[in-house]
Amino acid sequence: MKFKTVLAVETSCDDTSAAVVGADGTVHSCVQASQDLHHARFGGIVPEIASRNHTHHLIPLIEEALQRAGVDASSVDGLAVTARPGLIGALLTGLVTVKTLSLSLGKPFIGVNHLEGHLMAPFLRDAEYQPPAGFGFPYVALAVSGGHTTLYRVEAFGRYSVLGRTLDDAAGEAFDKFGKRAGLGFPGGVRVDRLARVGNPKRFEFPRAMIRDERDDMSFSGLKAAAGRAIDELFPTDREQMMAEAAQFLAEGSKNPRPGLLADFCASFQEAVTDVLVQRLTRAAVREGVRSVVLTGGVAANSRLRERVSAWAMQNGMIAAIPPLRFCTDNAAMIGFAGITRLGRGERSDQTLKPEPRAPLDREPQ
Ligand code: KG4
Ligand code: ZN
């Protein structure tokens, strides 16, 4: 059977998303509801709130995705859903919905590994994005989000090896925790990024853990602790000034970053994280002898990281595929592309499929 389009669903963490995707990666529609506001007052993601919000948003989002793509549910060829890894209750809401649709529509479905979705995101295409010319397998990919910081060698679709990963915090988690300490609320990553643009990255000296280590593993908890300590050790008047800068920035809708102590902190912190990430990605690409590199996951939204990886690729005759934000953060389009590729190879899931909170990629069928 030929699979021309699938309806895809992503509910593994706190974003609910639905998409209609074609076999060549064309995104006919992709819509999402972010839950940031619901979790912000708890300073992090609350799994139970995430599950409840998914149940609330998912059906309307599926309807919207179908409508925007100009198709109805009966005309897609199959369904794809994130089945692993993720928050168990969150995964369950998407999985139960897709299983039910699969039964009622009489269409096959496939459970997808969320990380495979992130690794395949550079192949997506829409009116504004397409994979860069010459991009292809094999490539080295850095999947960097609030939950993961892992460096992969991607030999072909389905053939992934882990080169290295964070031994403690994910880079996004470090951004978020630092942001919280700096008075920027949750999630802090994008706010740190905006402030860092007007800050001095050399003002504070933060550790780049393991940067000389031969292995590809990374560590961000020492940096998080060092930045937290530096905030604690500020003169009380300086700390008050910094918190006032944060309050003003937030009051203006995080739109108007101004130079100052807070911006310098953010720039110094961001430079330390990106130094490590860029070094790991570029070193591995050279060692592995690939021509293409990929940046994916929520932290790939970081403007400094994007800029540095793109500049390195330009200078070194490499191809950097850095999908736009909407395909880097959690989204159903990437799940749809991974899913339609697997369906096209004859793979199917059945009604016994269970969500799995942990699921290394190298256990997926090759
Ligand atoms: O992939 P994602 O949407 O969700 C998962 O964690 O799977 O990634 C969200 C993470 C959060 O930690 C958020 O702070 C971070 O990505 N993030 C950023 C930026 N935008 C989002 N970190 C740094 N700079 C950004 N511009
Ligand atoms: Zn993700």
How do the helices and strands line up, and which of them pair or pack?
Layout: E1 5-10, E2 15-22, E3 27-34, H1 36-40, H2 47-69, E4 78-84, H3 88-105, E5 109-113, H4 114-120, E6 139-144, E7 149-156, E8 159-165, H5 171-181, H6 189-196, H7 221-232, H8 236-251, H9 261-288, E9 292-296, H10 303-316, E10 319-321, H11 325-328, H12 332-344
Parallel strand pairs: 1-4, 4-5, 6-9, 9-10
Antiparallel strand pairs: 1-2, 2-3, 6-7, 7-8
Helix pairs in contact: 2-3, 4-12, 5-7, 5-9, 6-9, 9-10
Bound molecules: 5'-O-[(R)-(carboxyoxy)(hydroxy)phosphoryl]adenosine and zinc ion.
Q: What are the key terms here?
A:
alpha/beta; globular; binds zinc ion; Nucleotidyltransferase, domain 5; five-stranded mixed β-sheet; 2 domains
Q: What does this protein look like?
A:
It is a single chain. This protein is of the alpha/beta class. The protein folds into 2 domains: 5-129 and 329-363, Nucleotidyltransferase, domain 5 (2-Layer Sandwich), CATH 3.30.420.40; 139-322, Nucleotidyltransferase, domain 5. The protein is 43% helix and 17% strand. It has helices at residues 36-40, 47-69, 88-105, 114-120, 171-181, 189-196, 221-232, 236-251, 261-288, 303-316, 325-328, 332-344; strands at residues 5-10, 15-22, 27-34, 78-84, 109-113, 139-144, 149-156, 159-165, 292-296, 319-321. The strands form 2 sheets. A 5-stranded mixed beta sheet has the order 3-2-1-4-5, sandwiched between helices. A 5-stranded mixed beta sheet has the order 8-7-6-9-10, sandwiched between helices. β9 (292-296), α10 (303-316) and β10 (319-321) form a beta-alpha-beta unit. α2 packs parallel to α3, α4 crosses α12 and α5 (171-181) packs parallel to α7. The two termini are 20 Å apart. The mean pLDDT is 94. Bound molecules: 5'-O-[(R)-(carboxyoxy)(hydroxy)phosphoryl]adenosine (KG4) and zinc ion (ZN). The site of 5'-O-[(R)-(carboxyoxy)(hydroxy)phosphoryl]adenosine has 19 residues, from α5 and α6.
